[in-house]
Design goal:
Helices cover 27% and strands 36% of the residues. It is built from three helices and six strands; from the N terminus they run H-E-H-E-H-E-E-E-E. A four-stranded antiparallel β-sheet has the order 1-2-6-3. Strands 4-5 form a two-stranded antiparallel sheet. Strand 4 and strand 5 form a beta hairpin. The model has no long low-confidence stretch (mean pLDDT 93).
């Protein structure tokens, strides 16, 4: 079984995710592409000591990029949107 450090790659901090945090208590993470919802739920609960109610996942396709005359594609990645139980929260910026 993979550890929580292997499953959760990084938290996503965007304007849209910030609105989700404030209104619906949802957080978004970039996760390992081969992980499933059960593994993501256990990894978030173990790493942040919170109760997860729901996990939604989606695969994000990499964008086409060009640099001069060369073109290529950024890698595909997986995003997980996690809904926490009422009263729980994750402090992503611990230093502030």
């Amino acid at each position: 079984m993979k550890s929580s450090l292997e499953i959760i790659r990084r938290p996503l901090v965007t304007e849209k995710v910030t609105r989700l945090q404030e209104s619906l208590n949802q957080y978004a993470f970039e996760v390992e592409p081969n992980s499933n919802k059960i593994e993501i739920r256990k990894a978030v609960e173990e790493r942040f000591s919170v109760k997860v109610e729901k996990v939604r996942t989606l695969k994000v396709r990499g964008k086409m990029k060009t640099l001069g005359r060369f073109s290529g594609r950024r890698p595909n990645w997986k995003k997980a949107i996690v809904t926490l139980a009422k009263g729980d929260s994750i402090d992503l910026f611990e230093g502030t």
